[in-house]
UniProtKB/TrEMBL annotation:
InterPro entries: HAD-like_sf (IPR036412), HAD_sf (IPR023214)
Signal peptide: none
GO CC entries: cytosol
Domain of life: Bacteria
UniProt-recorded Gene Ontology molecular function terms: magnesium ion binding; phosphatase activity
Descriptive protein name: Cof subfamily protein (Haloacid dehalogenase superfamily)/HAD superfamily hydrolase (TIGR01484 family)
Source organism of this protein record: Aminivibrio pyruvatiphilus
């Protein structure tokens, strides 16, 4: 039997916080019982995504690092990956160094930052992820997958414009959440990682549904047969969503799951967006 695949972003789509709600866990169990396979596609690293992966009962590889890596959650091994040239990462870090934003450099399940990047240090340390906060001037580790800047949305938009102009064609510059700016190697996205993973399967999925809420989910949603988004998603995401679910704090993913179970019994054409509010 061909696979029915539901691929989901984590933050503000599947959940809000560091765990999946019981309502969403139960809904995911109903999906699995009815033949659905579940997969995570997130900007998080594996260590900070693992509780969500287990919460939805996914046994599939996880798309992490915003598509920079596809990893096996059970072993922690990378199945495929696209690292960033450290010299490019150094340029990016230097370009954002004096902006009033926090900095993260993401290596192999490890974060690098400045001592002043308090939110970065506290988040990763609380998750048990190694953090090197000794950076005193722009630098890059030998192994790097992406650079992230975090701050007030207005500052992030200013930096995004500057970095897009400077690194056009050399890096992907995309907002990955409210106040988060991800800079990735060229061609890297959640959608590209999903397509590459599907190409390794003996048979393509019969149906692919993708859920996400921000600009780093656009390629993922475009690659799916059905795109879903929470009601508070970014405007560009809502424009392409065929199913609009309640927000994550209202357990909207559970509503999506129940709608899918009902919809697949009839497979009616989705002529206009379905609103599950």
């Amino acid at each position: 039997m061909a696979m029915k695949l539901l691929v989901t972003d984590i933050d503000e789509t599947l959940s809000r916080g560091e765990s999946v709600s019981p309502e969403v866990e139960r809904a995911c169990a109903r999906l699995r019982e009815n033949g659905w396979s579940l997969m995570v596609a997130t900007g998080r690293i594996l260590a900070t995504a693992i509780s969500h992966i287990r919460g939805i009962g996914s046994s599939l590889p996880a798309i992490v690092y915003d598509g920079g890596r596809v990893m096996d959650p059970s072993s922690g091994k990378s199945l495929c990956e696209t690292p960033m040239d450290p010299s490019l990462a150094l340029e990016i870090v230097g370009a954002g160094w004096h902006h009033p934003v926090e900095l993260q450099i993401i290596g192999d399940e490890k974060a690098y930052c400045r001592y002043s990047d308090v939110m970065t240090r506290d988040f990763f340390s609380a998750s048990g992820v190694p953090v090197d906060d000794s950076m005193e001037s722009p630098s890059s580790p030998a192994t790097v997958y992406r650079v992230i800047f975090h701050g007030v949305p207005g500052c992030i938009r200013t930096l995004q414009h500057e970095l897009k102009s400077r690194f056009s064609g050399r890096a992907e510059v995309v907002q990955a959440g409210e106040g988060f700016l991800d800079i990735l190697p060229p061609g890297v996205s959640k959608g590209a990682a999903l397509a590459a993973w599907i190409d390794t399967l003996p048979e393509r999925p019969e149906l692919v549904v993708a859920a996400g809420d921000h600009h780093n989910d656009l390629e993922l949603l475009a690659a799916a047969h059905i795109a879903a988004a929470p009601e508070d998603a970014a405007g560009d995401v809502l424009k392409i969503a065929r199913v609009i679910m309640p927000s994550a704090d209202r357990h909207g993913f559970a509503a999506l799951a129940d709608w899918l179970l009902e919809w697949e019994g009839s497979r009616y054409e989705i002529a206009s967006p379905v609103v599950l509010l």
